[in-house]
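so i finally got all the pieces together for this one. its two components total, 565 residues if u count the protein bits. some of the lines might not be protein, just check the labels. i wanna see the whole assembly predicted at once instead of chain by chain like last time, that was a mess tbh
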Amino acid sequence: MIGYLRAIFEIASNTFKETVRNNVLYLVLFFVIALIILSVFVADWSVFARIQVMEDFGLATMSLSGLLLAVFIGVGMLGREISQKTVYHVITKPVSRTQFVCGKFAGLLTTLLINYFVMSVIFLGTLKYLGGAIHVSLIYAILLIWAEMSLVISASIFFSTLTTPMLASIFSLAFYIAGHLNDLLSIKFVEAKGSLYPALLKAIYFILPNLEHFNVRDNIVYGITLPVSYYSYAILYGILYTALFLTLSCVLFSKKDL
Amino acid sequence: MSFPAIEFKNVYKNYRKHFWSRQVAAVVNSSFAVEKNTVTGFIGPNGAGKTTSIKMLLGLIRPTSGTVRINGSDPLLPSARKGVSFLSERPYFYEHLSVRETLRFAHGLGQGYAKSGDADIGQALNAVELSGAADAKVKDLSKGMQQRLSMAQALLGNSDIFILDEPMSGLDPLGRRLFREILLALAQEGKTIFFSTHILDDVESVCSHVVVLSKGRLEYQGQLSQLLSQGQGGTDCVVIGLGDSEKKTLASMGCVVTKRTDGKDIIEIPAGKDPRQCQQYLCEKGLFCESMVKRTASLEEIIYKRK
């Protein structure tokens, strides 16, 4: 068991090194920090209170940055491993493909967590500096974004085991957008006529994760407090979908000719 | 229970380049075994199916049908790859890592390595004469140096089986000599080495056995000495002043006489014919036999002739 986990740790730490040495990470981080600071000025033009706009803008920026990292680093990473055959360096050792996928995921997630930690400190620090209060719900909202990004990364890995890096990037972006529009499907399948079409919409609604569960920005902005159980269930929902995508990725990757 | 280090039984591998393209047979009904503690050359022209076979052997691809075994186990199982080292045709490394980091990573992945990481890595770097570049980034290394790094990572962990795909490609003459020495040293330690190559000189100087593939099919498997004995092509005898009557008599004895550019004659005595008969005849005629050389075909000529 220790040997099994050690291999995952080695792959994760190598992935972490690779992402940390990737310029895209710093570009995205710079972009996010610039947007958070910019939100101070944008807030002055809004009809809402400055702090409300900053909270909304900051959380949205963090969610978007996670998507960019998942697409540019996450998808490319596994695709590159296969196309550049660096995967041979790992799979020819006594390492299973499941260990490889889990290691890659763990490495990417660690990078993202550290990245989010830096962003969160800057975001909350800016809020505090401008006189805003740091509510517990803000911390929960950040935790939900982490859970959402873990899900998006696992989906990106899943897509990159299926197809080329370019298509996997497009699928990952589409997945993110569709996941946030999933609520619309519930309205559609109630309204839809016939038997097949509503059933199809219903199936998509239930299969596709609803990423809006992780979006509590409106509640934060309007000061609506959600129960802790909501956050717990949303995080559990994210973990279960992440586990599902990782399991599917492992199964597909195990069957792939390299 | 005793089993060969490597075993292929009726293995087929078909693949298609695209979903819509037709299937191509890369390996066709291939069956061979590589015994433990042997050095086996895996030879064949481009597209013979060598790399495909090696990939199946390492669990990178699955055979379409048939069984592949390494150390008696299915190579798709990670445990089957314990104690197996691989050197790929082209070095595939993570460019963001340094030489030392690459070896640390490889060491960390190989479970059950007896020696501590740094001692093992230092020894491997010394063996391939790459100690001076230990902290250089992999992307800054030349192809030959990357190939040395490949060999260094294969040497980690004191493996029992070495699978080497074109290990000498991209190496300068010094590098090739170094690799030959490493392979001979490993062979002396009783390791099993299975390596594919186009350079048949390397096979002749290092291997005890050969497996020959052509168009995905097994052409020959066995001891190198047996294959080379197929190239025993009789004897060449150089003579001065051979007359027409002697030429006729020699022709009647089954010999072929040709004139060299320096005016001397070469008598080609066929394999299976005792050269002493010819020698005795020349003595009787008072002719001087300047040299007598046993004609042996190189491995390349033998393989070329078999096709």
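Chain A has a mean pLDDT of 85.
Chain A is about 80% helix and 0% strand.
anyway lmk what u think
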